[in-house]
Specification:
alpha+beta; 5-stranded antiparallel β-sheet; two-stranded antiparallel ribbon; 3 helices
């Protein structure tokens, strides 16, 4: 088509992405990131027959009916270790893992899974490519990978930590922080001590009030008795 194009000519190329399941609208409106693959063997909860008895090492990305996402790696091509799953047997895989959607990302010697372990990254499967000594397990150089990671979202907006309102240097911040903490702790201690004093004062006031009332009652009784005695003597009564 470009045989008549010469250097300096302007051309316009239009590219559209489609799949074999007529999901054109989904591709145009909903897909943000995509990874290439082939050979879909589960679609909307139903198995898609591949119809081939060939055994082959494969890497699979699948979604279960419960919403989980699975990475499945199947070794093969290694007599005495792993022959690989037949394409015609992927229906059993769909049923065993309750798969809703699943497809093969790639296969052959590039089919591999690397996991993060205590001392770094480690190849956890046995690829079908051979090492220099003739043994299987050589990791093939690949041009793309799918990475599953966990932790804070590095693309999320940064939280407002109040840094704009406190532009002081770190040393000052640390000193101020110490002062603030000291003041806060001291204030808390002062408030506690003040509360104890108030409580003790309230108890003392209550006790004093009781004593005053009791004393007044005693004084009243004594005064009444003295008045009765004096009155009796004045009027000749015993």
């Amino acid at each position: 088509m470009l045989s008549d194009i010469k250097i300096g000519d302007e051309i316009q190329i239009s590219v559209s992405v489609r799949d074999g399941y007529k999901n054109d609208e989904v591709w145009q409106n909903d897909i943000v990131n995509a990874v290439g693959g082939h050979m879909v063997f589960a679609k909307d909860g139903k198995n898609v027959a591949l119809g081939d008895a060939t055994r082959y090492p494969t890497t699979i990305i699948a979604e279960t009916n419960s919403g989980k996402v699975l990475f499945i790696q199947n070794d093969g091509r290694q007599e005495g270790y792993s022959l690989g799953i037949r394409f015609s047997d992927y229906s059993q895989l769909t049923k065993a893992f309750d798969l809703k959607n699943a497809f093969i990302v790639d296969g052959g010697g590039s089919s591999s899974i690397v996991a993060l372990e205590e001392n770094g990254y480690a190849l956890v499967n046995r690829p079908s490519d051979k090492k220099a000594d003739g043994e299987y397990g050589e990791a093939r150089t690949v041009v793309n990978s799918v990475i599953l990671s966990y932790g804070p979202d590095r693309n999320a907006p940064e939280e407002d930590t109040g840094a704009d309102q406190a532009p002081e240097a770190d040393g000052n911040d640390a000193a101020n922080s110490g002062n603030v903490n000291g003041t806060a702790d001291g204030s808390a201690a002062d408030k506690t001590e003040s509360g104890n004093k108030t409580e003790n004062g309230n108890k003392s006031s209550s006790l004093l009030l009781i004593l005053l009332i009791g004393g007044s009652a005693v004084c009243l009784v004594i005064a009444v008795v003295i008045a009765v005695i004096v009155g009796n003597k004045k009027y000749g009564k015993s």
